[in-house]
Write a structure and sequence with these properties.
Layout: H1 3-14, H2 31-34, H3 43-56, H4 59-64, E1 81-93, E2 100-111, E3 114-127, E4 130-137
Antiparallel strand pairs: 1-2, 2-3, 3-4
Length: about 140
């Protein structure tokens, strides 16, 4: 078992709060999506699960939840960057009956001891019936 899977299992058993900021335990929030036991019901839920994947270093989930036309062949995360908090600014469409939606967010991080934030207006679409990240603009 890889280090990421062991860390996710530890998070699940300890009842740790989900990194996405939902206020729920990771085991009851993003873990089922990361483990492939559930799919995100909305674009915002997918955005939250992707933030959690960045926070936990789960590149496999990030790639699986990326649209096939824009997905990179390889994804390497900066080991010195720690994602600390997600703030959803606005979500448009992306609901249960939609085929597209957008989420604007601020993702807060620490890098080399310094605080920073990434703001993005992300686009999500359904591919094969499930929500995936298409692309995003950073203002």
């Amino acid at each position: 078992m890889g280090k990421g899977a062991a860390r996710r299992r530890a998070d699940t058993t300890t009842g740790r709060a989900c990194p996405c900021g939902s206020g729920r335990a990771y085991a009851d929030c993003c873990a089922p999506l990361h483990d492939g036991d559930a799919v995100a019901p909305t674009a915002e839920a997918l955005m939250r699960s992707r933030f959690s994947a960045f926070a936990l270093g789960n590149t496999g989930y990030l790639l699986r939840s990326w649209h096939s036309s824009t997905r990179p062949a390889l994804l390497e995360l900066d080991p010195g960057q720690r994602w600390t908090r997600l703030e959803i600014v606005e979500a448009e469409r992306g609901g249960l009956l939609d085929t597209a939606g957008t989420v604007t967010f601020h993702a807060h991080y620490r890098d080399a001891g310094r605080a920073g934030a990434l703001t993005e207006h992300s686009r999500f679409v359904r591919e094969d019936g499930r929500w995936v990240y298409l692309d995003g603009d950073q203002p």
